[in-house]
Amino acid sequence: MTTLYSVCRTGGPLVVKHVQLANQVQHQIAAQFEAQATAFNHGINNEHDFDGDWKPDPDELLVARQLAEAQTLLQAAAQNAIALPVLDVLNFGNEGVKGLFVVTGQGAQRKLLLQAFSPQQILSGNKVLLHDGNVFRALQDPAFSLGSQLVATIDAQGDVRFKSFHMLRRIFDLSNFYQQATDADLQTFSGHASLLFGDANAFVAGADEAIRKSVHAITQANVLGQYDVAAIDARAQAIGFPITVNANRIEVPPDRRATKELLGFLLDRVYRGPLNQQLFITNSRRPL
Q1: Global pTM?
Q2: Which of 24, 176, 187, 277 lies deepest, with the highest CB count within 10 Å?
Q3: What DSSP assignment string belongs to the chain?
Q4: Domains in the chain: how many in total?
Q5: Domain boundaries, position 246
């Protein structure tokens, strides 16, 4: 028999709860998750360890290892489901459900099949009509819909395989893999001797997630410490990337898109196509 587990978070650590199912539903649940697992793995030829910077191609999976919260799910699944807390159906909207999963296989082949869960999957009587005889009636009891695809699989060792970082972080805390600059970090960055900002406060106020992540990566790699302005300018000119140097400082453009392009250049994400010689910028990278 298949057991359905819910992954809940209401402000603290993840809690795994048992979702009680009627016997006839258990087989249907198993079939749906297994079909989604087949679709999830279809056409996959490569795997890459995730470091926070690579977006997979359609034939690739990312692997997050040593993820503590994945162990929480594995440990819960190893118990008798009866020993777990039961999902409170009558208080479903306040249970903080972030994901649903089932377990397949045994021993070293054991695997968790994980869906993300959103509040939109909670069904209520004012928007769901059920066919009953020759008429439709409003849904009376608490209900929810399953997701249409897997977000990840977790193997017996706790390795998490996934395709979308943004979907996975709806369930897990991935701060170890994804860090971004704080306002204080941005203020420090804007005051660097190699950079010239027209309005540092506007830069901080307008910095979105992509800019904050790039600034964090540049700071961690000490790019501006490794290369002086002259060296950066020379490399930009070599590939035809436009930067402006004023009084031995690189001007950071006020336009957000141009700012992202400059930060991308500092992160080695700008390159010239070897055949058509066109400049490109990539949002992720992997050594060849």
Answers
A1: 0.78
A2: 187
A3: ---EEEEE-SSSS-EEEEE---HHHHHHHHHHHHHHHHHHHTT--EEEE--SS-PPPTTEEEEE-S-HHHHHHHHHHHS-GGGSPBP-GGGGGGS-EEEEEEEES-GGG-EEEEEE--GGGEE-TTT-EEEETTEEEE--S-EE---SS-SEEEETT--EEES-HHHHTTTS--TTT-----HHHHHHHHT-TTEEES-HHHHHHH--HHHHHHHHHHHHHTHHHHS-HHHHHHHHHHHT----EETTEEEE-SSHHHHHHHHHHHTT-EEE-TTT--EEE-S-----
A4: 2
A5: 183-281
